[in-house]
Amino acid sequence: PVLCARRSLTAIKNNIVAVENENIMMKAAETSRRPSKDDVERISFGKPSKQKGVGSRGTPHRLNLDERKSFESAKRKGFVELMGSGWRKERRDAPLYNTWRNWCDAVAAPSIFLLKGLPDAVVLDLSPLRTLHQFGTIAQCLHERYPNSDILFSLDEHPEYHEEDWLQRPLHQLPRYEILWNFDNLTSSRADAKSLAKVLALDICNFPILKTRSSSIPKTPRVKPGKSRRSGGYGIG
Question: Residue 77: what are its φ and ψ, rounded to 5°?
Answer without folding.
Answer: -105, -30
